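U., I forgot to send this yesterday:
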Amino acid sequence: MKKILYLIGIMTFVLTSCSSDDSSEIFIKKSKLTKIVYVTLSTGAYSSVDFKYDGNHIKSETYNDGTYAIYTYEGDFITKKEMFSANKQLTFETEYKYIDGKLASKTDKYPNNGGYLSRIKYNYKTGIVYSEQFTVIEETGEEIEFDLFGTFTYKEGNLLKSELRTSISESIYTCEYDTKNNPLKNITGMNLLTDKDYQSSFNNITKLSGDGYLDTFTYAYNENDFPTQSKCFDKEGELKWTAQYYYEQE
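Result:
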């Protein structure tokens, strides 16, 4: 169910290891995302997420199954995301650290993790982000290199290409976009996060392809050029899911 909420379709690491180095905060008046509702056509499954804010800082995301996420800021940077079960038990925590206004690392921690964490580090060149994954021994802080590396190409705030490599394999995906506003565009710091994949790009994805995979997307927009509806189609042209977007008018 959660995968639907984040526009499922590709390997998690490929599009959750991306943070643009040429993006800047651009706020568009009026449309602040408050709710997304998804329907998966093959199963008829319904899912939704509600967003709460403090100004343009996101405070929480609440899912229709009762689970929820809490965000913590330092200034205008999101520094922590905590996931909770419906009975308010912490299930997952992500810590974000920044250098010179760019994401430097993302560290994931589970309760009862056996003393190990997962960390991704980022390096930047113009339009390109490089990532490297590590397993971290929590007690000592020692980082053990994991055989997983990423190269991500950005232009004008949009993720264009994701390349994921191991010592024995490579996976490449490419993205195309419209020229309208991404639903998350008005959330402070969201464009720097890594676990929103192409949702944190400036515009809306229209095509995702690679390794025999192809999804296309269509949209309807409001008067402020934010999506009110999206549809995802597979490579055969069959409708996979639909989404409705709701906004607070400021």
